[in-house]
Amino acid sequence: MSNETKAPGQIVTILLGIVVLVVVGIWLLAKLATSGFDVNAEVMSKEAVAARLKPIGESVASDAPPGMRTGQQVYTGICISCHGAGLAGAPKFGDAGAWGPRVAQGWDTLVKHALEGFNAMPAKGGAADLTDDELKRAVAYMGNAAGGQFTEPPVGGAEAGAAADPAVVGKKVYASVCMACHDSGAAGAPKFGDKAAWAPRLAKGLDGLVASATKGLNAMPPKGGYSGSDAEFKAAVEYLTNAAK
């Protein structure tokens, strides 16, 4: 008699157990199928997705007004789309082997190809809003990163010969260019604020340091790759030296 009354309860228990097993099984299969895909909100944000889908050559906003962008800003905002990874036959940024034959063609040829387009690259990299000087700065910036010795057309700012405040202008130039090496001491650059590393350099005096940095020294390209005025660059050198005194 008792067995007959317990039978329905046993059946319900068995059914519930089966349902739980099915749900757990589905969850495990889903987990297995998505393993290795670590998705987070930041990566999948609308802004991040839009950036990855941005057409090649479309300008990316920078703090500089149109016509005033440096070579580094143009490269980071536009050219990196292809030159960052070496897509579509573009010489990869910093690859001396790939850039060597191109640098050997000379400045005029490099600029002509960049302005008019060459092989798979459209005119101005597809960024029609770039001024000629902005594009030339980008060409110089990329070429110099691979061993070239080009001079970027100057960007407006402190006029040649005019003094620029190291604590303001120099700090800004440092943050935009110099910190790439001097912050970590990469490629033998004296680290920011390292008095021991800067001591023998400070012995040259400010003018001597500026002269060496302007020409380029060891792994450092002329003016550290900075395309602004000499006054702005001098302010950056002074900002670096002041931090190490």
In short, what is this structure?
This is Cytochrome c. The chain crosses the membrane at residues 12-30. The protein has helices at residues 2-33, 46-53, 71-83, 96-104, 107-116, 132-145, 166-182, 195-202, 205-215, 230-243.
Structure description:
This protein is an all-alpha fold and 245 residues long. Helices cover 56% and strands 0% of the residues. The chain contains ten helices and no strands. The protein is elongated. It starts with a helix and ends with a helix. Residues 66-146, 165-244 form the Cytochrome c domain. This is Cytochrome c. It comes from Vogesella alkaliphila. Keywords: Electron transport, Heme, Iron, Membrane, Metal-binding, Transmembrane, Transmembrane helix, Transport.
List the uncertain runs. 36-58, 157-161
Helix content: 55-70%
The tally of helices reads 10
Biggest sheet details: none
Which series of helices and strands comes N to C?
HHHHHHHHHH
| Structural class computed from helices and strand pairing | mainly alpha
Radius of gyration: 29 Å
Output mean pLDDT.
79
Strand portion, in percent? under 5%
Termini gap = 98 Å
Shape category:
elongated
Strand segment count? 0
Keywords: Electron transport, Heme, Iron, Membrane, Metal-binding, Transmembrane, Transmembrane helix, Transport
InterPro entries: Cyt_c-like_dom (IPR009056), Cyt_c-like_dom_sf (IPR036909), Cyt_CIE (IPR002323)
Domain Cytochrome c: 66-146, 165-244
Pfam families: Cytochrome_CBB3
